[in-house]
Design brief:
Strand content: 25-35%
Helix content: 10-25%
Low-confidence stretches: 5-31, 410-420
Distance between the termini: 67 Å
Strand order of the largest sheet: 29-30-31-32-39-36-35-34
Number of domains: 3
CATH topology of the largest domain: Beta-galactosidase, Chain A, domain 5
Number of strands: 39
CATH architecture of the largest domain: Distorted Sandwich
Number of helices: 14
CATH class of the largest domain: Mainly Beta
Structural class: alpha+beta
Shape: elongated
Largest sheet: 8 strands, antiparallel
């Protein structure tokens, strides 16, 4: 295929030069309606022609004012024509022929026919349009089109004769566009990169979901985004301010967003998918997609990989819709690849009405997300009305294949749940309902999400314990009580954690490092998480070469494993039940760290330390972020940092030490524009949603209070 895509300025210069060199008219077509299926007169099958530019695909005609327009679709044409065309018109009284050479002026015979032809070649859409004065051509007429290699008198391809008033051919090419791995993001940096990333495509080009969304909107092309309707994806799109685009396309019927079983157990993740969709204003779906390729019940149709990707099948009462087969290149800078075009023509001429073409695939690995390939490919598809682009309603009525096609595995590779983690799953299933259990499920789904990356699976195993700590807090919230103990192994790491609780505060502190891994608050509205590790939301952000699975929770160096983490050293612990306090003393007795609960918070005091810098990851009501529009805000004042929901609970961090903070919201002003590789994004850009990290730096004894803002 000849490369035809050029920058707009270069295109204009080249087009002007071509028009000056050639006598063939390159007059721009004035603004008018698009060519439609009603204008189509004939489809021509694929032929073994010497060049793609001589393979005729379709013929159209229509009247525009006093003009008669005849359009010919060719398989592929270059900018510099290398083909001749001949249009033979059979009319009462005369049978004129219009010969269009590769270069030079159109020739009309007989000359006395009084016909003048203007020719517009569009190498981007691979069409040739001939404009004639319809008043000198008796209507209706019969038309036959032939193509030639220049200098040859033998047609390379020739259509059957067709009447100008013939109805459109019944056969069309059914096409489904479906993508998975559409927007799996956990940080603003990932969201920007997946939306419109610089050098992020499979060939190092600009790439992202935005180019697919823009193509669908601009050219009215229906798409299926198989796994977009997860809490994390929808929350990120809402945060970026682009969710209205998604909602608008759904309302227009251009987006099919199935409910998603994005992790196991499927029924729980499906419930979360539906809840998040409702919270973000997206409709419930009659379609479902399972990342692990397990069949789901109670849906009219399921998208799944089938052993036959060209037909729909059935399982019980549900339609099974095939996922696209793997392909190196479907979208190109010239439009659909030649292989895709041939598939479409073959489908249009198939005697099997249930045959369809399914394109798309794993979006990050696909050329469809390429900035320079998406637009010309969408434009080409939209400009060829013999292609029937299937929407959701079409998929519910499209004929099933005559033979049953069996599931052949999903688009992703399922991540097995390790035997050592099964107690967490059992406890999740039995856990009391509430926001902390929701957070525990979210963490479980993040850690068990399907992946083919064996190293990531191994890394994740180090962080399952966070689920246990969240469930312990959920049980406390159901029956709050005061406790000071270091007896229970909440995260199943083989060592006990310390619990410091009252009727309205619950803290989990790990004696290794004396770090506050989790902090919760209970009021009349229910439990609220205030502090938690970044591994609750994501792991594996660092370079895989830096992963050390043998180091437990330190396996991923980017993980912030809780507040006041001074390192892996184990401390002696002294508990004081009367004062709701825990004191951690270094083994050499030179340093002490004391935690004391208050009615609405916790105070942490450091004694005997030299220069120290500690982080406090604030996770205020994180589940709210994932299930509906919320806004987080910060308020810095001398000696205090306030963070939380604009219309909800907020937390204050007080200290006599130097405070600084980074928030996931720090880079919001850069979204959703294209990623700029030369931009120095703030540190919060790389934090997991919805985290704020306060840093305390000091050279002497100090204390920090974390309290509920009044």
């Amino acid at each position: 295929m000849v490369i035809k895509s050029l920058p707009s300025t270069a295109f204009r210069l080249l087009l002007t030069a071509t028009c000056l060199l050639s006598v063939v008219s390159c007059t721009p077509v004035p603004a008018q309606r698009d060519w439609t299926y009603a204008d189509l007169r004939l489809l021509d099958p694929l032929d073994n022609t010497p060049t793609p530019s001589t393979d005729i695909l379709a013929v159209y005609d229509r009247t525009v004012g006093s003009d008669l327009e005849i359009r010919i679709d060719l398989l592929d044409i270059p900018i510099i024509p290398d083909y001749d065309l001949s249009l033979h018109l059979i009319t009462p009284g005369m049978d004129p022929t219009i010969f269009i050479p590769a270069s030079g002026q159109p020739i009309v015979t007989p000359a006395q026919a009084g016909i003048q032809a203007r020719v517009v070649r569009d190498p981007w859409l691979d069409t040739v349009t001939v404009r004639l004065n319809r008043l000198v051509i008796p209507q209706p007429f019969t038309l036959q089109v032939s193509s030639f290699i220049p200098g040859s008198s033998t047609p390379a391809d020739e259509t059957a004769p067709v009447r100008s008033d013939a109805p459109p051919p019944l056969a069309r090419a059914p096409l489904l566009l479906a993508f998975w791995d559409t927007f799996p993001v956990t940080t603003p940096a990932q969201a920007l990169r997946r939306w419109d990333g610089a050098h992020s495509g499979p060939r190092g080009e600009r790439h992202g979901l935005s180019h697919v969304i823009e193509g669908a909107a601009l050219y009215h092309i229906p798409l299926v985004l198989l796994d977009l309707k997860t809490p994390a994806s929808l929350a990120a799109l809402n945060y970026m301010g682009v969710l209205p685009q998604i909602q608008a396309l759904c309302n227009q019927g251009l987006l099919v967003l199935p409910d998603v079983a994005y992790a196991e157990p499927a029924q729980v993740s499906l419930g979360f998918s539906r809840s998040a969709a409702a919270g973000f204003g997206l409709p419930a779906s009659q379609f479902v997609y399972s990342a692990s390729a397990t069949l789901q019940s109670k849906y009219l149709a399921q998208f799944i990989s089938l052993d036959d990707a060209s037909h729909l099948s059935r399982s019980a009462d549900a339609r099974l819709i095939p996922l696209p087969a793997p392909a190196d290149s479907q979208a190109t800078i010239d439009g659909p690849s030649l292989d895709v075009r041939r598939q479409l023509v073959t489908a249009a001429f198939s005697a099997d009405p249930s045959r369809l073409v399914v394109l798309g695939g794993d979006l990050p690995l696909s050329t469809w997300g390429n900035q320079d390939m998406a637009a010309p490919t969408f434009a080409w598809l939209a400009a060829h009305p013999w292609i029937h682009l299937l929407n959701g309603q079409d998929l519910l009525t499209f004929p099933l294949g005559s033979k049953k096609s069996l599931p052949a595995g999903g688009g992703d590779t399922s991540s097995p749940v390790e035997t050592s983690t099964s107690p967490f799953l059992e406890n999740l299933i039995r856990a009391p309902t509430g926001p902390l259990t929701v957070s525990a499920w979210q963490t479980w789904f993040m850690l068990t999400a399907p992946t083919s990356d064996e190293k990531l699976r191994t890394l994740r195993l180090n962080y399952y314990g966070q689920v246990g700590e969240l469930l312990a807090a959920a049980r406390w919230a159901k029956n709050p009580s005061a406790e000071v103990s270091c007896m229970d192994d909440l995260n199943s790491d083989g060592s006990p954690e310390c619990i410091l609780s009252s009727r309205n505060m619950y803290a989990v502190i790990d004696p290794r490092g004396g770090r506050l891994s989790n902090l919760f608050y209970l009021d009349a509205s229910g439990p609220h998480q205030l502090v938690g590790p970044s591994s609750q939301f994501t792991v594996g952000l660092s370079d895989p070469s830096e992963w050390h699975p043998d180091l437990g929770e330190a396996a991923d160096p980017t993980v912030i494993s809780g507040a006041f983490n001074d390192g892996p050293d184990r401390w002696d612990v002294h508990a004081s039940a009367d004062n709701a306090a825990l004191t951690f003393t270094s083994l050499d007795s030179t340093r002490q760290k004391t935690y004391i609960l208050s009615d609405n918070g916790i105070t942490v005091s450091y004694q005997g330390f030299g220069p120290v810098s500690v982080s406090i990851p604030l996770t205020v009501d994180p589940q709210a972020f994932y299930f509906g529009p919320v806004k987080y805000q910060s308020s810095p004042t001398p000696g205090m940092w306030t963070w939380g929901l604009a219309n909800g609970l907020q937390v204050e961090v007080h200290s006599d030490a130097l405070l600084s903070a980074q928030n996931f919201t720090d880079s919001q002003s850069f979204l959703p524009g294209p990623e700029n590789p030369d931009q120095a994004y703030p540190g919060g850009h790389y934090l997991p949603f919805p985290l704020s990290v306060v840093t305390v730096q000091v050279n002497t004894d100090f204390s920090v209070q974390i309290t509920i803002a009044k």
